[in-house]
Amino acid sequence: MQKIRLGIVGYGNVGRGVEYAISQNDDLELVAIFTRRKPEEISTVNKSITIHKMEEISNYIHSIDTMILCGGSTRDLPEHAPHFATMFNCVDSFDNHSRIPEYFALVDESAKKSKKISIISTGWDPGLFSLLRVLGMACIPVGCDYTFWGTGVSQGHSEAIRRIGGVKYAIQYTIPNDNAVAEVRKCTNPTLNTSQRHIRKCFVVAEHNADLIFIEHAIKTMPHYFFDYDTRVHFISEKEFLSEHSKMPHGGIVFRTGTTGNENTNKQRMEFLLQLESNPEFTANVMVAYARAAYQLYLKGEIGARTVFDVPIGLLVPNPMEELMKMVL
Amino acid sequence: MQKIRLGIVGYGNVGRGVEYAISQNDDLELVAIFTRRKPEEISTVNKSITIHKMEEISNYIHSIDTMILCGGSTRDLPEHAPHFATMFNCVDSFDNHSRIPEYFALVDESAKKSKKISIISTGWDPGLFSLLRVLGMACIPVGCDYTFWGTGVSQGHSEAIRRIGGVKYAIQYTIPNDNAVAEVRKCTNPTLNTSQRHIRKCFVVAEHNADLIFIEHAIKTMPHYFFDYDTRVHFISEKEFLSEHSKMPHGGIVFRTGTTGNENTNKQRMEFLLQLESNPEFTANVMVAYARAAYQLYLKGEIGARTVFDVPIGLLVPNPMEELMKMVL
Q1: pLDDT digits (tens, 9 = 90+) for B134-188
Q2: Of A39, A53, A108, A115, nearest in space to A298 by CA
């Protein structure tokens, strides 16, 4: 069987996760990695993979079936995605929710010109969580949905703490509030805003002689980030910080709860939970599955931008539909 | 907006659930119900819906967009589905897993002749659980999957108990074994067969003067049904039976657990849980969502049989893709 030939643009945590992910799939092959950094400064997992400067990417138009764009949503992707869609089938994990429609339009225009496919905003949120929200709306039309995030690291909140004077290291975990989760599981469709749904747990290493009371107060009163939340601050040693808080876990739960039947008396609940020890590696795995699907859609003659809502689930795996029917239907 | 016009074949628990489900969706309309029974003996939820004999169905070829087949998998569907696929777009919930490939082939042949779409084996297992198994394989390729069923009524096991002498009423609930679920959640990928994953809880109303010890022994030693399981038998009064055990709850959990990254050290877990107070009503809701999708696929010019693996999730809801992109992506 001819393997599907993939490329990676951007070699940070997600890019490295994509390299691992491809190695877990026999039908996929990593052809090259493209970076804005100096290629000789990058150490890949598989030493035999060639790393190239971004400018060389157009030489690969005929040797890469889908390009996996691993840049950030703020600056990289708005530039990369419309550009590389003129050359390749692409997938990305663009996660700036409010800008998705305009981003989609730009990518769609490029992909239509090149007669290729680009699947935008894959990953798990947006991505799998979005899929499950739609599945919930479809199967429990009279109902509510709830998304809880965590337990997981929020980079934005961790950075906000690090900007406070006297803080040496800091990490913030977003954690679903157990009481709120329990309430949702009762199918009472409670009204719960984001701050009622989550706890913010902060681990802080203070500078020598720093004012701990000041730091804790500065965190807990920080508007938008912490003020409205059940915020818990723990001061720990540098040693504990480095040994216990170096992973990038994340996850969350998407609920749909509602009722069916005569006078809507029967409660129905759908729940989708992710618990991830490595957020970037799981995101990478989802992207790789959609990279496979993008190439399948391209082979069927489809062109333009797509979202996870457009992609049949069976195209995410290498197995033919007949085999899936026997094996897992 | 023109509503999608639906019909129901077979008016048992699921057929009635479909009638409720259609009433929860503004873009859908129930045109007629077809039955093998005498129409005048059937009392529908909405009294103004017309009920017809099965023979009249061909008069509706031009006035029903998708027919929802609510017959049983043993006798009804193998006959109904290939037949009605020659006239209508259809959905069904065929759940005889081992016979799905041959069933698919028959329906496919009919649907290709009529240039219509038939989506087979919708519902939640097969159906949503199958989708989630594939999503798990796609996103955690190095891993295991586990399906737990329940808490829910097993009709087959309930009937098996009722065949024992001295039993007046009986109902059997399949319940996930908490210890097994906890083990799976640890991502240790344990080996667990069906009997280790489930408890079988039986509520029995005995005839007056029946030998309770004999009944309990007969249940617990019944091969295939109960012998290998943690089986628990509770004798209750007829009054309690009728008041507490008249609903048809069900549900279950599909897990995918595995590892990613360097030397597969990072554990990743996906979990999809259903808790349903009415199994037939939820099954009906899923079928109705796929009935909508079947018509959309037909409008795109697709023909033949399909499974849930072929259907983009976005087609299950009435919202246009642009709206979904803004609202839930």
Answers
A1: 999 999 999 999 999 999 998 889 999 999 999 999 999 999 999 999 999 999 8
A2: A115
Distances (CA, A) of A22 to A3, A6, A46, A211, B61: 11, 8, 11, 48, 49
Put simply, the answer to whether B260 touches A45 (Cβ < 8 Å) is no
Reported as half-sphere exposure (CB side, CA atoms, 13 A), residue A107 has a value of 31
Q: How confident is the model at residue B193 (pLDDT cuts 50, 70, 90)?
A: confident
- Report how far residue B167's alpha carbon sits from residue B93's, in angstroms, rounded to the nearest whole number: 32
One-letter identity of residue A84: F
**d(Cα B91, Cα B14) in Å, to the nearest integer?**
13
CA B58 to chain centroid, in Å, comes to 27
Q: Which residue carries 């909405």 as its tokens? A: B46
User: What is the C-alpha to C-alpha distance for residues B34 and B39, in angstroms, rounded to an integer?
Assistant: 8
Q: Among partner residues B141, B281, B321, which is closest to A260 by beta-carbon distance?
A: B281
pLDDT at position A47 over 90: no
Q: What is the mean pLDDT of residues B240-252?
A: 93
Contact B57, B34 (CB under 8 A): yes
Contact between B157 and B172 (Cβ < 8 Å): yes
Cβ neighbours for A232, distance < 8 A, ≥ 6 positions apart:
A199, A200, A201, A202
Helix (H, G, I), strand (E, B), or coil: what is residue A49? coil
pLDDT single digits (tens) A134-146: 999 999 999 999 9
Residues of A in contact with B279 (CB under 8 A): none
Which residues, including other chains, have CB under 8 Å from residue B14's CB and lie 6 or more apart?
A: B70, B93, B280, B283, B284, B287
Asked if A51 and A39 count as a contact pair (C-beta separation under 8 A), the reply is: yes
All residues of chain A having their beta carbon less than 8 Å from the beta carbon of residue B104 are: 325
**Is residue B270 classed as helix, strand or coil in its secondary structure?**
strand
Residues 6+ apart with CB under 8 A from A14: A70, A93, A280, A283, A284, A287
d(CA A72, CA A182): 35
Instruction: Please give the residue of chain B at the shortest CA–CA distance from A254.
Output: B272
The whole-number average pLDDT for the span A251-261 is 97
Q: Nearest CA to CA, how far is A221 from chain B (Å)?
A: 31
Residue B194: its pLDDT value, please? 83
Give the confidence band of A264 by pLDDT, cuts at 50, 70, 90. Answer: confident
The alpha-carbon radius of gyration of chain A (Å, integer) is 22
A97-133 pLDDT, tens digit each: 889 999 999 999 999 999 999 999 999 999 999 999 9
Do B107 and B81 form a contact (C-beta atoms < 8 A)? yes
**3-state percent breakdown (helix, strand, coil) of chain A, nearest 5:** 40, 30, 30
For residue A194, what pLDDT is reported?
83
Sorting pLDDT into bands at 50, 70 and 90, what band is B34?
very high
Q: How many CB atoms lie within 10 A of CB B144?
A: 17
Helix (H, G, I), strand (E, B) or coil at B132: helix
Nearest by CB to B328, from A134, A267, A316: name it.
Answer: A134
ipTM metric: 0.94
User: Which two tokens mark B292?
Assistant: 């909508």
For residue B41 the two structure tokens come to: 């003996």
Residue A235 pLDDT > 80: yes
Residues in chain A: 329
Please report the DSSP string for A203-249 in residue order: EEEEPTT--HHHHHHHHHT-TTTTTTSEEEEEE--HHHHHHHS-SB-
Which residue in chain A has the smallest CA separation from B137?
A: A317
DSSP B37-48: S-GGG---SSTT
Distance CA B275, CA A270 (A): 7
